[in-house]
Amino acid sequence: MRIVLVGPPGAGKGTQAAYLAKNLSIPHISTGDLFRANISQGTPLGVQAQEYMRAGRLVPDEVTIGMAKDRMHQPDAEQGFLLDGFPRNLAQAEALDAILKQDGLRLDAVLDLEVPEDEVVKRIAGRRICRNDSSHVFHVTYNQPQAEGVCDACGGELYQRDDDREDTVRKRLEVYHSETEPIIDYYKAQGLVVTISALGKVAEVTQRAMEALPSR
């Protein structure tokens, strides 16, 4: 099964992608992982990406598309994959269609995780990270520490990242609406979009997604 996962920041795409990929026995291919792998391995595409990033510039679509194409052609993706963070805009969506068409393949579904905007802001702006270990994550509403501002695991100070501040989150949502959301209409025209609510417990959302996906 070949799936694209879309949704606004804070929709839980990374978490759901990991569970869905495991349940479907297909690799989870995220844009972040693509960049890290290519840069750490020193591939030509990774070198290009790093040059743009060091200059504080956006990595061009053709570099991201090239990385995704290489990854989708690896042996573990022969029976399918779950794309998370790619395509991010219409140009990338059209490129993905072209790549699949060349291989005689097509997408099975585009899974749209739907979350109200106020909930997105609440989820992200409420996050607090431990200064000693960024893997220790708490939330002012959903996962409160035993002592306010103190990490349960190591006693480190909890803080709010600049990227998680409300004004920054709302700017990220504006970018999502203008750049990424149009791909949903693009895929709706192909009859591929499956929209589910991403509210509730992680397991509930995963079950909802599995039931909504077309049968294999």
Question: How would you describe the overall organization of this protein?
Answer:
Its EC number is 2.7.4.3. Residues 30-59 are annotated as: NMP. Keywords: ATP-binding, Cytoplasm, Kinase, Nucleotide biosynthesis, Nucleotide-binding, Transferase. There is one protein chain. The chain is an alpha/beta fold and 216 residues long. It has a single domain, classed as Rossmann fold (3-Layer(aba) Sandwich). The chain has helices spanning 13-24, 31-41, 44-54, 61-72, 90-102, 117-125, 166-180, 182-188, 202-212, and strands at 2-6, 28-30, 81-84, 109-114, 127-130, 137-139, 158-159, 193-197.
Short description:
The chain has about 220 residues and is an alpha/beta fold.
List keywords for this structure.
8 strands, 216 residues, 9 helices, Rossmann fold, single chain, globular, three-stranded antiparallel β-sheet, alpha/beta
